[in-house]
Amino acid sequence: MQQDLSTSLLFHQETTFISDATSQDTVFKEIAQKLYQQELVTADFLENLISREANYPTGLDLTVISSHYPNIAIPHTESEFVKTCRIVPVKLNHPITFHNMIAPDASFEVRFLFMILNDDLGDQAGILANIMDFLNRTPKDDLMAFFQLESTESIYQFLANHFQN
Amino acid sequence: MIKILAACGAGVNSSHQIKSALETEMADRGYEVTADAVMVKDITEEMMQHYDIFTPIAATDLGFEPSIPVIDAGPILYRIPAMAAPVFDQVEEAIKNLNK
Question: Residue A3: its pLDDT value, please?
Fold first, then answer.
């Protein structure tokens, strides 16, 4: 099912982040705290995000698209802990190890998170598909440049310009 | 009607994408398929009895041995035809073997 929110509603500059965290737990704590302060997630969000990632990892190996791309992860948890529908981009200044979503025994270093907040599994089930289409369709040189961006404003602007529903 | 059970950790995003992709592709291949998307933790042996094929994202420990064909559907999530095709082929093969 395709969702029909416009890009401007799926991304927000105030929930676009660059993190210096060096572990899953620290980056999750950092981002969850900011999301909680903005009243976008419940108090239980962090705990559930961490356990969800431990049991059902979300790392995606992008080398299958291009050997030059860094790997990403799409952390998320159940709708009941989320109060909005949006994608939270997080550039990681330091690589963090994630396990592979489609082969959980494998792990690799991840440099970018597209955290998915989804409070409506009926209407907004196409968000992951939209992320994958963005990664598949964006010209390689452009996407390489995107992963090198160093300000939350430029990351947000790139996504606003290139992300299609 | 073939019934498929798709599952992921949160029951949102991944399993819904698998449900949508399988329903669309199998319809294109001429099969009448309906899929449900659920959280892995909610799956029971009793629930599984109502389905013909189980498509988790990756190998999943349910605490019991599924009595229906299990096909890991994770590669579909990449939305790259060459990655998805082998999964679709496996599902089609399983449908044929059901002799429904």
Answer: 40
Rounded to whole angstroms, what are the CA distances from A65 to A44, A133, A151, B63, B83?
35, 11, 25, 34, 10
Using left for φ > 0, alpha for ψ between -120 and 50, and beta otherwise, residue B79 falls in left
**Looking at domain A7-158, which CATH architecture does it have?**
3-Layer(aba) Sandwich (3.40)
Report which DSSP code applies to A14: G
Q: What is the pLDDT of residues A75-123, one digit of tens each?
A: 998 889 999 999 999 999 999 999 999 999 999 999 999 999 988 765 5
**Tell me, what DSSP letter sits at residue A23?**
S
Which residues of chain B neighbour A1 with C-beta distances below 8 Å?
16, 20
Percent of chain B clearing pLDDT 90 (strictly above):
84
Contact criterion met (CB < 8 Å) for B16 and A74:
no
Q: Look at residue A66 in the predicted model and tell me its pLDDT.
A: 93
Instruction: List the CATH code of the domain at B2-98.
Output: 3.40.50.2300
* Mean pLDDT within A30-53: 96
Q: Do B11 and A78 touch (CB under 8 A)?
A: yes
Residue A92 neighbours by CB under 8 Å, 6+ apart: A19, A21, A27, A110, A111, A112, A113
Give the residue numbers in B contacting A (CB under 8 Å), as ranges: 8-14, 16-17, 20, 37, 39-40, 57-59, 72, 74-75, 77-80, 83
Contact A31, A49 (CB under 8 A): no
* Interchain proximity A121–B11, CB inside 8 Å: yes
